[in-house]
Design a protein that fits this description.
With about 240 residues, chain A is mostly helical. Chain A has 9 helices and no strands. In chain A, α1 (about 1-10) crosses α8. The longest helix of chain A is centred in the N-terminal third of the chain and has 33 residues, at about 10-45. Chain B has about 210 residues and is mainly alpha-helical. Chain B has helices spanning about 5-45, 50-65, 70-80, 85-110, 115-120, 125-155, 170-180, 180-210. The longest helix of chain B is centred in the N-terminal third of the chain and has 39 residues, at about 5-45. The radius of gyration of chain B is 21 Å and the shape is elongated. Chain B starts with 5 loop residues before the first helix and ends with a helix. The chains are: A mainly alpha (about 240), B mainly alpha (about 210). At the A-B interface, α3, α4, α7 and α9 of A face α2, α3, α4, α6 and α7 of B.
């Protein structure tokens, strides 16, 4: 036990940088996913069949082919095929972003559809431009509904980051694995890994709860402070639009 | 730089399909375990005593918020004498049970309160209440959502390759490493996943509509 923690202290700089890689992959991956969610989700509601169809195909492709295959494809197959190589971290960010962006687009689509029809009609009656209508009326209301689902997706994404270990990015799991192999303290190592991921997940949930509260406030809906501490990692039953 | 080599793809395909059998086996058994265990957790969560519900909830939150890969690798390193496939199925099943229990919870919440009261009025035992009245109504509504979790578990089985279960991605990686044909094997493996999961998710959506969701 003490052996493990003394080695951990010795290797603290590496552990720190490993944790930083994991955080980077999570943050950058989810930013890319957020961007794609909105792009694909808004395209799915477009009046043009071509745009709608394109979004549908991209979404089904990335949801259907499994994240692991996509990650390995980017890491192993793409350099062979194109001669262009991404760093492991970048591979992770791109794969996480594309995969979770596809799932996120369903969230965006569902939330926009759930804004009452009368809100659209009122905005049209007030002679708002489509852009103005989206920005001032529809999105603020849809955004509140998106946040809980986005929280789930964010936690899912965080839980996938140990995959970086497999494509030899020096992430947090890699560094702890290294210390484990040095000391042979299997149980301690994995319990520590699980605990740290749990803390990260909980911190992200708290952050998203704050975001949800401020979004609700802006709509004039008030929420109690107790809701801030709630974990919300379970998904709702109504998995709108099929499998996640 | 090379291009897609069709002969390598043709050679790898039987191997991949062989691995696909293991993938399917793990998915089916893992889903069954998740379905049963999830129900048990959901019922335990409704126990009248806090000494039951609080620990169950805490363990559930922990398992749900931590990475599957770490759980798998950890379990495989701790139980070296158990077969990797068994470990994989158990870990997948337990991990997903924490999700399916939430599905059951919603299903159980969806049973009208009057049903509980009627059971009490008829002085049914708790066991009879669950067995004869609540669960038959709850489980029916829950089936499509369970199907969705089965699909997502299917797409997570590649994790099992890490603990040396010979499923599809394991076969793909070893063939790719031997013949330096990663492009072919991973493209094929992705296509197999797409071909298997997309029709299933369409089917699930249809089922969901039919059951009135």
């Amino acid at each position: 036990m003490s052996d493990f923690f003394s080695t951990l202290l010795d290797e603290l700089p590496q552990v720190g940088s490993g944790l930083w890689v994991t955080v980077q992959a999570t943050v950058l991956g989810s930013l890319l996913a957020l961007l794609l969610s909105f792009a694909l989700g808004l395209a799915a509601g477009s009046g043009l069949l071509l745009v709608r169809g394109f979004s549908r195909i991209v979404v089904e492709f990335f949801r259907g082919t499994s994240l692991y295959i996509q990650l390995f494809w980017l890491y192993y197959a793409m350099p062979q095929l194109t001669g262009y190589e991404l760093t492991p971290l970048l591979c992770g960010v791109v794969a996480f972003g594309l995969n979770y962006g596809a799932y996120g687009s369903e969230i965006v689509r569902g939330a926009i559809n759930s804004v009452p029809r009368a809100q659209y009609e009122a905005a049209v009656a007030l002679n708002m431009t489509p852009l103005h209508r989206m920005r001032k009326v529809i999105l603020p209301q849809a955004w509140v509904q998106m946040i809980p689902s986005f929280t789930n997706l964010l936690i899912q994404l965080l839980k996938c980051t140990p995959l970086l270990w497999l494509i030899s990015a020096a992430d947090f799991m890699t560094t702890i694995e290294h210390i484990r192999s040095l000391t042979g303290e299997t149980l301690t190592a994995y319990l520590l890994l699980l605990a740290v991921y749990f803390v990260l997940a909980y911190a992200l949930t708290l952050l998203m709860n704050l975001l949800e509260r401020s979004a609700k406030r802006r709509l004039g809906l008030h929420t109690g402070a107790r809701g801030l501490l709630k974990t919300r990692t379970a998904e709702a039953v109504a998995t709108a639009g099929g499998a996640r | 730089m090379n291009t897609f080599d069709r002969s390598a793809a043709g050679e790898a395909l039987p191997l991949l399909l062989e691995g696909f059998r293991v993938t399917l086996l793990a998915t089916v058994l893992g889903t069954l375990l998740a379905a049963v265990l999830g129900l048990a957790i959901a019922v335990a969560n409704r126990a009248p005593s806090r000494f039951v519900t609080v620990p169950v909830k805490a363990v559930m939150e922990f398992v749900r918020a931590t990475p599957l890969l770490v759980q798998l690798v950890g379990a495989a390193a701790l139980f070296t004498s158990v077969e990797p496939l068994t470990i994989g199925i158990v870990v997948l099943g337990v991990h997903y049970a924490t999700y399916t229990s939430e599905v059951y919870r919603a299903g159980i919440d969806g049973v009208p309160k009057g049903q509980w009261e009627a059971c009490r009025a008829l002085s049914l035992t708790p066991r009879r209440t669950w067995q004869a009245v609540i669960l038959p109504q709850a489980v029916r509504n829950v089936l499509p959502a369970l199907g969705n979790y089965a699909i997502s578990m299917f797409k997570e089985t590649p994790f099992l390759a890490v603990i040396t279960v010979h499923e599809m991605v394991f076969e793909a990686r070893s063939y790719g490493a031997d013949h330096f044909a990663y492009t072919e094997v991973f493209t094929l493996a992705g296509l197999v996943f797409l071909v298997a999961s997309y029709p299933t998710s369409l089917l699930m959506r249809k089922l969901e509509k039919r059951l009135g969701h």
